[in-house]
Amino acid sequence: MARTISERLSNILVCPFDHSRLALEQARFSCQKCKREFQLSGRIPIMLDPGLLQADVQKEDEARKKEEMEIFDNLSSYQDFMNRAYLRAIKEDISNSLLSFDLKDKEILEIGAGISLFAGKLAERNRVVLTDINETLLNQNPENCDLVVADAENLPFPDRSFDFIYLVGILHHLPDQKKGMQEIKRVLKEDGKVFISEPTKWSVNLIYYLGRKLLIFLLGKNFVRKLVGCGTPDEEFLDTKELKKVFSDDFQIKIRKISPIRLLPIRFFDNLGFVPKINHILEKIPIIKNFGAIAQITLLPKR
Ligand SMILES: [Zn+2]
Questions:
Q1: 59-301 adopts what CATH topology?
Q2: pTM of the full structure
Q3: Most buried in the list 31, 95, 206, 269, measured by CB within 10 Å?
């Protein structure tokens, strides 16, 4: 069945770089101001810098984004990664937190949705837009959501567009996390809310991070890339201090850390079914709970 972009989506899209209006002509949008053109792929607009789509990108940040675009084309390795037993326990916790926001008739944005675990449910009572830098993953999402290929550092939406924005494990994929956070702030409505789940820097993740740096130093990036399987070797985990710098003026920030033990997403650890149970105990112990490997962050507007 031939499918085209929804009228609602084509009405809200703007140029990701100067936020100017776009003209839609024959399956492509063009920016009135910078003259960049963005293609439509079925119902999905590809709102990336045309330079990023070229075979040979020069800048380091762009090369990283390109790698993120391509690495997730492998659906089976993505699904394998997402179905690791440890991640299933984490996802359940995140899902409970996310669905505890009682959202109805809202404009909702999920950034870096991949194959979203939450959007289908939210879209039953709200209007939901999903972005991801990878079209293959995005394409797997439910019919009741609008889909946009976009770079989280340059979102193709006008200022103050959404009532609720959420992202799960996305910031550490961005070359410029601060820019990603500023984009969230920009496209959020004045009384809007945000939910972010993200691996934290000051936790067991620091050991993984330093271990990976050491491996890159000893064996090279390509080796580590193969070892990681899904994701790029350059990612850096979130320092919540940096997040507070961006959001604390305008938002009340609530942080709940979970999972002091974080296992690597490899098959071997699937047998360690008792780990989530130990985590649930550790999460209740003062001091230890501050070193949870995953932060669930809620941003509420200051009154
Ligand atoms: Zn433009």
A1: Rossmann fold (3.40.50)
A2: 0.93
A3: 31
